[in-house]
Structures are given as structure tokens and as C-alpha cells.
UniProtKB/TrEMBL annotation:
This is Uncharacterized protein. It comes from Pedobacter jeongneungensis.
Length: 127
């Protein structure tokens, strides 16, 4: 292998760091909005959203096949639906919806379960 090529193992870590960065940006955006607009959600709700997505990222990475992966997508989206319902639909607004869907879709596409243009959250998503 020459110096311009990277092994699959070498590229896996930056891919995870990319997803972690996206998740961090989502959280920071939610916190910023919470401070400026005083919506009916709390820091606990933001932390719950982050936890749901972190669990998803670990689980999808460990999944063995597309069927298992899609079940994880469904569980994640249903959990986010419940959390968003608890906050009167204010936690996940347009920009958050786009960021969350991007995280879910990107992580699953990296496993080869879908294309990056395929919205695998739509079937269950209420946000």
C-alpha cells in the first residue's frame, strides 16, 4: 500500500469522529436556541436526545446486517418521536430534523445498508 492509500481501519476512526462532530454541533445548536428562545425543553431533554443518538451510533456500528440495522433505525426514530412529543414538538424543529436525519442516514450508509440520499427515517419519523 502506498502513502496515498488508507486502510479501511485507518478510515473508520475519522468517519466516527465526523459523526461525533455532527452530534456535537447538533447539541450546541439546541443549547444555543434554548438559551435565546426559552422553549419548553430542558437540558435533560437535549442530553436525552444526544444519548439516543450515541446509542444508535454504537449499535449501528456493531450491527451485522441490514435487517438488524433498520431495526436500530426504527427504534432510534421511535425514541426520538417520544422525546419530541414530551417537549410539545419543540426539541426537533426543521434544522434539528435535518441534522438528526443526516447522522442516522450517514452512519447506516457507512455500513452499506442504504445510500446517502435515501431517507431511512421517514417511515417512522413524526418530527
Amino acid at each position: 500500500m502506498d502513502s496515498t492509500q488508507t486502510s479501511p481501519k485507518a478510515s473508520a476512526k475519522p468517519a466516527q469522529e465526523d459523526l461525533d462532530k455532527m452530534l456535537s454541533e447538533l447539541k450546541n445548536s439546541m443549547i444555543s436556541y434554548m438559551k435565546s428562545a426559552e422553549p419548553p425543553y430542558t437540558m435533560d431533554d437535549i442530553d436525552s436526545c444526544e444519548k439516543i443518538l450515541k446509542v444508535y451510533l454504537v449499535d449501528i456500528n456493531a450491527s451485522q446486517n441490514k435487517e438488524q440495522g433498520m431495526e436500530m433505525v426504527k427504534t432510534t426514530v421511535v425514541n426520538l418521536n417520544a422525546l419530541n412529543g414530551k417537549t410539545e414538538g419543540t426539541l426537533i424543529e426543521t434544522s434539528e430534523r435535518e441534522k438528526i436525519a443526516e447522522i442516522i442516514i450517514l452512519a447506516s450508509s457507512r455500513k452499506g445498508y442504504n445510500t446517502i440520499d435515501e431517507d431511512i427515517t421517514e417511515e417512522w419519523r413524526e418530527w
